[in-house]
């Protein structure tokens, strides 16, 4: 008896076993006179792809929770323009030693002038850590203060942020300076370091300014905040290239060519 077509997807082979018309593998196994369903290669491949897609979906859901801003979620080292190779090398070395860094709660303080790529690099690190399964939260100290003003749910929301293994805080030093704000910021930084959370911070200030603030006995709250930061975060200078200035010049040249009737 030869092959018998059962449908567009199946046929019966010479042994009377149902097989897949596409991959030709059996969809049945025979044991002691009984036939049992098994998966052919098509079915195995489809299940594997479905599992991978589910993993990708869960990863992206986690990334959205970690980094609410869609643009920041797109920042990866693959998009690095390599104009600041020294910074890139240091940050990739940090990631390669992250297990050891995390064990001690050691983070980074990315500093430099406006437009140098600090936020980009910080979120490259965050996205890389999310990819390998770490829990990350991107926020700002202004947001922390705003959450703390919700006296009913604020503490619970802040504790939820502190549950993350890595906390990225952008633009440290730009938040409003009030007594309430400074106290909330200190409490947050103190809890984060006490819990051995890894802090990835960006700032326009120089480490020297942080050190001076940490030693200023006239402002003990600020002194304690910056002391905690310097204790746990290694300063990395990011200002080889002013990326925003370069982009601004590129856009201006583009518009100039269009408006003056030149070919782009």
Provide a compact summary of the structure.
The protein is an alpha/beta fold and 264 residues long. The protein has 11 helices and 10 strands.
Radius of gyration: 27 Å
Lateral arrangement of strands in the main beta sheet: 7-8-9-6-10
Structural class: alpha/beta
Distance between the termini: 71 Å
Uncertain segments are: none
Provide a descriptive summary of the structure in words:
The strands form three sheets. A five-stranded parallel beta sheet has the order 7-8-9-6-10. The protein has a three-stranded antiparallel beta sheet with strand order 1-2-3, with no helix packed on it. It has a two-stranded antiparallel sheet with strand order 4-5. It starts with a strand and ends in a 5-residue tail after the last helix. Strand 2 (10-12) and strand 3 form a beta hairpin. By secondary structure, the chain is α/β, with parallel strands linked by helices. The longest helix has 26 residues, at 41-66. The protein has helices at 41-66, 70-73, 85-96, 98-104, 118-131, 141-148, 154-162, 179-194, 207-214, 220-232, 243-259; strands spanning 4-5, 10-12, 18-20, 28-31, 34-37, 107-111, 136-139, 166-172, 198-203, 233-237. Helix 3 (85-96) packs parallel to helix 5 (118-131), helix 6 packs across helix 8 and helix 8 (179-194) packs parallel to helix 10 (220-232). The mean pLDDT is 88. Helix content is 51%, strand content 16%. It contains eleven helices and ten strands.
